[in-house]
Amino acid sequence: MRAILLMLTLLLVGSTARGEEARVTVTFLTDWKAQAEHGGFYQALAEGRYAARGLDVQIIQGGPSINIPQLMAAGSAQFGIGSNSFIPLNLVEAGAPVKAVAAIFQKDPQVLITHPRADVNSIADMKGKPIMVSDATIGAFWIWLRAKFGFSDDQIRKYTFNLAPFLSDETAIQQGYLSSEPYLIEREGGFEPEVYLLSDEGYPGYACFILASQAMITEHPEIVQAFVDASIEGWMSYLYGDPSPANALILRDNPEMTTDVIASAIAKMHEYGIVDSGDTAGLGIGAMSDARMEEFFTLMAQNGVYRSDLPYTEGYTLQFVNKGAGRAMGPKGP
Using CA atoms, how far apart are residues 219 and 235, in angstroms rounded to an integer? Predict the structure, then answer.
């Protein structure tokens, strides 16, 4: 962690040392190793969209040892990714001076996966059947599955992120991430699994938030707006243009990534409208609404995840989105 902090500090002061006084150097922390799910940010960097707005953006890929809210609260980074709708609420609960300023993923890519089978044609059909989920999921979207579909905890079987139990059991059901497990199952198992996206069944969570420090929001809102707008343009270019500039940077930063996994992830984001759907048709990429944030908070508060009087609206701001950003660059969302 000390090494990471030192690296981020050096990046923050680097622009003056390189004689780039005209640009403001900021750091952006991703929530995992470089992948297609970060593609729009890498595209904005590769195509010079941040630079065109006076920003020298340093993308630092995440991993299990990097705590994005902690680093941002300490002032070591100005921007980061919030993986899901729990993050803004957790920030409020922790009193961290960080807010969500855009929601790049209109649909959280969490899915349930089955083998092709006649007795399951919807999530509702999974009630009463064993489902493999991780420990973290029990306190997350499993709560929504219980509330909406009447799932019970005795259905839970442990998911260890090993596909072998699923591949060997044709009656198995497991959780997954839209752009990950379904492709790996098809590649390793030789069949196309049935995939049920929770968001298409009403799960209200956003994903891939852009987080910004409160200091940046208060003191330099123009920088926050520039970062959000350039990122949105990057996502439109990545999805509807040539993604190869971003992919080259992704493969550079994460040598374990492969081109086939990237291609599959991009296809899934298109197919399911992960980035461009719903409110984005009118409000633009990155759209957020008070109604959806309230719906998510209310559900989780009613199930004991958060206290009912948590001032959850302090975890996000609509100041920088809902202005139609990116709409001129690509098709309207479905």
Answer: 26
